[in-house]
Amino acid sequence: MAEMTIKKKRPKNLDLTTIKLPLPGKVSILHRVSGVGLFLCLPLLLWLFGASLTSAETFAVFKAAFATLPAKVVIAGLIWAFAHHFCAGIRFLLLDVHVGVEKAAARQSAAVVFAVSIPLTLVLWGVLL
What we know:
Elements: H1 23-52, H2 56-65, H3 69-96, H4 103-128
């Protein structure tokens, strides 16, 4: 006798604008986005660093370019990506060793990631710029 497969009718919501993620889900997605952004910007940053060390003139050109507002916004975004990725990475390491896996603790640790990464970004941005 042939096996009968039963298809379950599951609700499908393909409209991504209506999906309401909990805070831990948002932290997880931003962790991935910040990691990809840091990974993709790393070659450019390494090239800029290497080029700025070639001569005093190129350093002066890069210094002037990074004094503009758009460059400062990009740098602030990279600093935030690093701070968020670092804080969320620590959170995920703790989750991997089963610390804070309960629902309430996971929500609280996700809130802590934002509560630490945003001020850390402002501090680093103030120190670096």
